[in-house]
Amino acid sequence: MASAAISMSMASSPVKTLNYRSSSKKTPWNTRRPKFSVKAGLEQRTYAKGVEVSQGNGGLPKITLKSPTGSEAEIYLFGACVTSWKVPNGKDLLFVRPDAVFNGKKPISGGIPHCFPQFGPGPIQQHGFARNMNWSISEDPENSEGETTVKLELQDDSYSRAMWDFSFHALYKVTLGERNLSTTLTIRNTDAKPFSFSSALHTYFRASVTEAKVKGLKGCKTLNKDPDPQNPIEGTEVREIVDFLGFVDCVYLNAPNQLIFENGLGDTITVENTNWSDAVLWNPHLQMEACYKDFVCVENAQIGNVLVEPEQSWIAEQNIIFS
């Protein structure tokens, strides 16, 4: 995955301290274990109504969500990466690059990869380790009429602590509706000391790059990596409509809670968020000649480091709506 970010040290937003209260459930977050873990080689099975687990590409465990209204989504436990979101008319609104590798070693290039606990380059591996680890299904689904839900979780281990020496618990709730796909990411500090991180959902949308447009960013402060990705230029977005007619790699600080994305294929997608402070637009243009014409990235992000105290949590939500 190419970098669509700035380094953690360049983040311009102030450090935030989060003080969400602990979960009211009887079992503490730092002792709850996943109820269901999937290994490669598992035959297809139904985990709950509308939730199936099977082997995906490369033999990796894959979850398929099916809503009662005909929409469908696929999520790989490796990286908790949503790789497909099909609305009832059969259109897949997400994009997986043709060079994506499903080997359980390299992050999946496409769909909705996680960036945690680092967005972009920095002290640890590019975009952090969450997209490069196996997640587990956690808890029982909370399906409601017209929606299908699954919860995935990730906890620190020797691999993560070798890079980022903190104890944490990540819970990722994915809900599929008739015309929307929503996610809630909760990062809980289960360590005895505070930690800070940055994060993003690096969403790849299927698109016609010459026709794709984003509305709602006018007036945002920007960090533009065109023409020199190593030296972002600070500025302010003056356009009502942002296009992708060339190389695009731009961070929008303090972005609004709603953006309107037209994919150039006849579809309008509303990208909503709660507590993702920033947005990122990315298309590599000729740097990825084989596929750049077929996608753009419209990402919710938290560029500035968030400081989370022990036993406290940071929570952010995304809702993408097809119309």
TrEMBL record:
Keyword Metal-binding: no
Enzyme Commission (EC) number: 5.1.3.15
Catalytic activity: alpha-D-glucose 6-phosphate = beta-D-glucose 6-phosphate
Keywords attached to this entry: Isomerase
InterPro entries registered for this protein in UniProt: Aldose_1/G6P_1-epimerase (IPR008183), G6P_1-epimerase (IPR025532), Gal_mutarotase_sf_dom (IPR011013), GH-type_carb-bd (IPR014718)
GO MF assignments: carbohydrate binding; glucose-6-phosphate 1-epimerase activity
EC top class, as a word: isomerase
One GO cellular component term noted in the UniProt record for this chain: cytoplasm
This protein's record includes keyword Membrane: no
Annotated CDD domains: D-hex-6-P-epi_like (cd09020)
GO BP term (any one): carbohydrate metabolic process
Entry-linked Gene3D superfamilies: 2.70.98.10
PANTHER family for the chain: APOSPORY-ASSOCIATED PROTEIN C-RELATED, GLUCOSE-6-PHOSPHATE 1-EPIMERASE
Annotated family: Belongs to the glucose-6-phosphate 1-epimerase family.
Protein's recorded name: glucose-6-phosphate 1-epimerase
Organism field: Rhynchospora tenuis
Lineage: Eukaryota, Viridiplantae, Streptophyta, Embryophyta, Tracheophyta
